[in-house]
Specification:
The protein has 428 residues and is of the alpha/beta class. The chain has 13 helices and 25 strands. The protein has helices spanning 23-35, 49-60, 95-106, 126-134, 142-145, 169-179, 197-204, 235-247, 266-273, 317-324, 346-356, 387-397, 419-426, and strands at residues 4-6, 14-17, 37-43, 64-68, 71-77, 89-90, 111-115, 138-141, 147-153, 157-158, 161-163, 182-183, 185-189, 209-212, 215-219, 228-230, 252-259, 277-285, 289-296, 304-305, 329-333, 360-364, 367-372, 377-381, 401-406. It is globular and about 60 Å long. The two termini are 29 Å apart. The mean pLDDT is 98.
Length: 428
């Protein structure tokens, strides 16, 4: 763990950035490329540690993957040709890798063992293991499959009709990927719609997926056809610069080629609700819609963030909490208990760390309440090894009176390895 002291002295921020590729889409591009027979090419791939963990797992399954900068080539003989790995599959800090691979591996004829870092070892896996078991999957792990290491004995699966108890794209995607190998039609019912990158990419690889009113239906046994995947910039990474540009004095930041899929873009709604000076210029829609986002400093009003909006911005709550410290009035974030099972408990982490900077913020059972505006001061913050807490602290440092120190700057490489270069590029 490397400490980092950030003493930015309240700069203006100006410039144009292209944020790195979307983490969710990058993971899926490797997985889908590995399922399909033939050569899949990927551009704009995120070279973050989480996505590199996914590549590493598929290499251990015998898939040929070549990385050349942000271009990746996946040469696969198809899912039936995956080899039984002699080693444990190591998923690092990545919940998406762990959970989606549980779904995928359950329907192969392979025995695999998967484990990750200390954070992964504390994250609930029965939310995936239990529905997969209903499809016939054989999954063993600590506390009856709740925690890694997990052992999976692949087997023939049967389709099922599943109503999601929580809004989670990882759970939905694991079931759909298992459904690819199952007999019959797999149905997943969502009360609140979670990100739909899996459904979109299944179509991009030639599969047929129906989605009507939050009900996803997917016939098993479909073949995927290798293709090209162009990964847009990650709105969850852009979020840090959207907030920085909104709260730093006299700032203007342009973010190009940002993915604005409506199941992910809740932060745009919230910024608009709060009165931010944000321009959204659509760049069109391929497999995923993209836009150029321009943010300028403005006066902000408090808001309430709740209900169906939460899954569309779940990873942005830490940075939105910082934003709320600069808005007039009381911001309420509720219906967000899922934050407790992210890379760390993000309700506790955000509240405890922002308090150290003088924020008026309290935790609730399912979110937090923030009263603003508050002039923040410096302090020594913990990241809890969580990339998004580390970046929240760094953006806070841009507006504090005095320096902010974080205990672990390296964790940010999980999703945004060039983050500090991008901060330096917009400092004026
Ligand atoms: C992701 C889904 C979300 C999100 C995570 C990535 C995905 O998790 O928080 O960063 O790629 O499907 P949940 O499915 O647990 O909500």
């Amino acid at each position: 763990m490397t400490k980092k002291v950030m003493d930015y002295k309240q700069p203006s921020l100006k410039g144009t950035l292209t944020v790195p590729g979307d983490k969710s889409i990058s993971h899926r591009s490797i997985m889908f490329g590995a399922i399909a027979e033939g050569t899949t090419t990927v551009s704009g791939f995120l070279l973050g540690e989480d996505c590199l963990s996914t590549i590493d797992c598929f290499k251990k399954l015998g898939v040929d993957i070549q990385v050349d900068g942000t271009n990746v080539t996946v040469n696969s003989k198809g899912i039936d040709a995956w080899e039984e790995p002699k080693e444990v599959l190591y998923t690092g800090n990545s919940g998406t890798t762990t959970r989606l691979m549980m779904g995928l591996l359950s329907g192969t004829n392979l025995h695999t063992v998967m484990t990750g870092d200390a954070s992964i070892g504390k994250r609930p896996m029965r939310r995936v293991a239990d529905p997969l078991r209903q499809m016939g999957a054989k999954i063993a792990g600590r506390e009856n499959g709740q925690y890694t290491p997990l052992a999976i004995q692949g087997t023939q699966l049967e389709a099922m009709d599943y109503t999601m108890p929580v809004a989670s794209a990882q759970v939905k995607s694991a079931i759909l990927l298992a459904g690819l190998r199952a007999n019959g039609t797999t149905i997943v019912r969502e009360k609140e719609v979670s990100r739909d990158h899996t459904e979109r990419m299944l179509r991009q690889f030639g599969a047929k997926v129906d989605v009507v009113d939050g009900v996803v239906s997917f016939e098993g046994g479909q073949k995927l056809t290798a293709t090209h995947v162009n990964v847009p910039g990650d709105i969850s990474s852009a979020a840090f610069f959207l907030v920085a540009g909104a709260i730093a004095p006299k700032s203007e930041i342009v973010l190009e080629n940002v993915g604005v899929n409506e199941t992910r873009a809740g932060i745009i709604d919230v910024l608009q609700q709060m009165g931010a000076n944000l321009e959204v210029k659509s760049d069109g829609e391929a497999a995923e819609p993209t836009a150029t986002l321009t943010i300028r400093t403005s006066q902000l009003q408090a808001t309430t963030i709740e209900g169906a909006l939460i899954p569309t911005l779940i990873d942005e709550v830490p940075i939105l909490a910082l934003l709320a410290t600069q808005a007039n009035g009381k911001t309420i974030i509720r219906d967000a208990e899922e934050l407790k099972v992210k890379e760390t408990d993000r309700i506790t982490a955000v509240v405890d760390e922002l308090k150290k900077l003088g924020a008026n913020i309290e935790a609730t059972d399912d979110g937090m309440i923030i009263e603003g505006p508050t002039r923040l001061h410096g302090g020594k913050l913990r990241t809890y090894g969580d990339h998004r807490i580390g970046m929240m602290a760094a953006v806070a440092a841009l507006i504090t009176d005095g320096a902010v120190e974080i205990d672990d700057a390296e964790c940010i490489a999980v999703s945004y390895p060039t983050f500090f270069e991008h901060v330096d590029a917009v400092l004026k």
